[in-house]
Amino acid sequence: AQKVTQAQTEISVVEKEDVTLDCVYETRDTTYYLFWYKQPPSGELVFLIRRNSFDEQNEISGRYSWNFQKSTSSFNFTITASQVVDSAVYFCALRGSNYKLTFGKGTLLTVNP
Amino acid sequence: GAVVSQHPSRVICKSGTSVKIECRSLDFQATTMFWYRQFPKQSLMLMATSNEGSKATYEQGVEKDKFLINHASLTLSTLTVTSAHPEDSSFYICSASLAGGEQFFGPGTRLTVL
After folding, report:
1. Closest CB from A43, A91, A95 relative to B91
2. Distance CA B29, CA B27 (A)
């Protein structure tokens, strides 16, 4: 069975602070994909990143960066110099061999001005 | 590319009526579509997987007679909530994918049953 744990239910920061959202996963598959999505108040899911299990290189995209550590089954997401527009719910998800996505419970990020 | 639409975006209905939600892949042919349900402040839960031309596969605990799914073409899947009740009020999200490929999500449909 697949499982994704986002232990942080809510995080509140002040603008320009850096913030890291944690994601820990469980799977028996050797090949799998990890995702991060952003869900603003409008509800539409915004795709942020996909990482396959064989690619442990960290990735940076503007103010966003991701740290994939297979040894600890973690795929953490850091926002540098946060902005009010970053306020949203962020979901980590796992797709295994059955092609189904398993979502974590999400982390509500509030960035205050 | 890879745009998925849902219609309606918001619907309010009376208890006991049926509601149909459409999910369309606008610029690609989706062999598989997924339907998710999201309660307020909760995660997305997969309800069912539908492949074009075949019966949907429902997740455990999802009533297939309550949530009818039809995937009649490679660009359209519909979810019908039959005899809706207030507890069916939720945010329903679909996604569409090519075989074994990326899932592209629709904008969601907010259903309120009075």
Report:
1. A43
2. 7
pLDDT, average across residues B109-114: 97
Tokens at B48, concatenated: 């069912």
pLDDT one-digit tens code per residue, A27-79: 999 999 999 999 999 999 999 999 999 988 888 999 999 999 999 999 999 99
Q: Which two tokens stand for residue B25?
A: 């892949």
Residue position matching structure tokens 């999500």: B105
Chain B residues whose CB is inside 8 A of the A102 CB are 46
Do B51 and B59 form a contact (C-beta atoms < 8 A)?
no
A75-113 pLDDT, tens digit per residue, is 999 999 999 999 999 999 999 988 889 999 999 999 999
Place of tokens 């989706």: B30
Say if the Cβ atoms of B91 and A42 lie within 8 Å: no
B107 with A44: Cβ contact below 8 A: yes
Answer whether B91 sits within 8 Å of A47, measured CB to CB: no
Instruction: Quickly tell me which residue has 């108040």 as its tokens.
Output: A41
Q: Report the chain B residue with the minimal C-alpha distance to residue A39.
A: B107
When CB atoms are compared, the residue of A44, A95, A100 closest to B108 is A44
Distance CA A14, CA A16 (A): 6
At B75, the pLDDT band (50, 70, 90 cuts) reads very high
